[in-house]
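debug: dumping io for the single-chain case to check the tokenizer round-trip. Nothing else runs in this session.
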Amino acid sequence: MNLRDRATRVVVLRVLRDAVEAAYRAERRAVLDGLRAARAELALKSVRVTLPDDTPIATLTLIDPQPAVVVTDEDAFTAWVAANHPGEVETLVRVRPAWQREFFARLARAGPVADPHTGEVIPGLAVAQAPEPRSFSLRPVPGGAERVARAWHTGEIDLRRLLALGGGRT
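debug: decoded output
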């Protein structure tokens, strides 16, 4: 398979994935709402799922979250811990993240890292080489998803051929 074929395949799969994902999220929300209603009305927590011939394929069960302790006033809780468990309180010293981002943006990306104003080499910093690209951007053209869907529906795109596994028959 050449790059053009693979690029077409990745765009088509992305469109199909997005369509399936959207349908899945909508259906999952409807099922969750249905399970909640069944619990309220009938005290049901689970439902058996079957194929049309009554072959069981799954069980869906509401998951009851457990109550959790949360901190609503960090200062009050920290003061209480400091008074009652002083060994469990730590002081954190760090560079403010916002300043660090701004400072790093001004630094050269080659050679030893030096202060842009004084030229002093800054201890603890180095320039990491950029890794090989691990991904790529896919931005469908306006109307592209609709065109892919139309081509699929009209048979212009043969999903059996497009999705055939290596060594399989088409």
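debug: round-trip ok. The longest helix spans residues 3-42.
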